[in-house]
Amino acid sequence: MTHPNAAGPRRMFLRAGTAAGLSALWPGLARPNTAKPWPQRPIHLIVPWPAGGGTDLTLRALADEAATRLGQPVVVVNRPGAAGTLVAPLLKAAAPDGYTIGQLPITVLRFALMNRVAWNPMTDLAPILQVSGTTFGLLVPADSPWRSVADLLAWARAHPGELTLGSTGVGSTPHLAMEELMQDQGLAYTHVPYKGTADQMLALVSKHIMAGVNSTGFAPWVEQGKLRLLAVFAERRLGRWPQVPTMRELGFEKAVYNSPWGLVAPAGTPHAILTALHDAFKHAMFTPRHLAELARYDQSPEYLDPAAYLAALRQTQASERRLLQRMKLLAAP
Question: Which of 6, 170, 253, 333 is most buried, judged by most C-beta within 10 A?
Fold first, then answer.
């Protein structure tokens, strides 16, 4: 006579026909881990500037070098406009899977302080690493009659509102650098914003504007003799142009501006993926090709790991808040 409970274990076995049930009964039959390593497809790197500018070209070199370590292409996607801030809403809308990352210029922090926006750079973005930074210069066409900053300011004083001055967008560092200078001098001028370095430099060479403030992406234009560099907004003279004074040397104490930048991903990107991105791009930063590309624009690597980069972003946000408050440009609470 069969015991009434004898079929119990058999029924349990039949009901446990899934891999989980089998592995629970006999661990040796567990299904092997079939999860594929990340990444499995190309990674898109949003560059919020036009193609052909200094930042775009250095990032393309960086992307190529990182791709060799990641085993997948890193595709640069240019999204210029709004002083480089379009990267923030694009990343907020992207899936946090590591396949969409972006360059973070300082203007993203500034724009969020100057305007009411539907994104927060401190909570919607995840730092990967800081890469480098840019300094800025005041430029005129090579045949301009202005051979110094004093010449330019004297003309602006004699012709109120007639000076046309280009920047890389409203709220960009070049815009604020010149805005603060002109405010302190009590001078009126006409601001002409552009999407990036390349289009602004073309406008300056073709004399659609009289002067421009831009990052060291202007280097090729100066070296080709198409533009004249009057001064730089740096703490010290640049090695490539030792004859060009700093604005501070000329008596403008507050006129020191730089713009550190790095790479970020959408908030919520898994830590393991952020680590893989960090490791690949840190390696890429110090490759000979990327270092040479930075040097073309008088830049150098300024590496910070994710934690240090986040701390730097918080510090930058605080200093930007003070600057914008002084210039009465903070958004109303």
Answer: 170
